[in-house]
Amino acid sequence: MAQDPERGDERPEQDELDASHDLDLVTLYSSANVDAEMEADMIRGVLDSNGIPSILVRATGFSNFGFEVRVPQSMAAEAQRVVAEAQAAGPEAAAEAERESEEGR
Description:
Blueprint: E1 2-3, E2 10-11, E3 25-31, H1 36-49, E4 55-58, E5 67-72, H2 76-103
């Protein structure tokens, strides 16, 4: 292993880096509809509340190019499941969950 002379610690060699594709990002949602940004924000909220990291991809200043929500490949199936559950529950369930979280404060 190589050492960083300034820090005195060991660095992993190039071939020792994690080469798995578990952290590769995959697109969970993609749309260029008028309400795409709002939908993407809601999806990210659902993912965040379930502990699933995500990023929003967009062309800044060019909303007509659309929006994407991407998640780590290793969590894609779980992300699809929680989003589908949230969509099936509908807005009433979201409003109820928000009321419950406000009462718990």
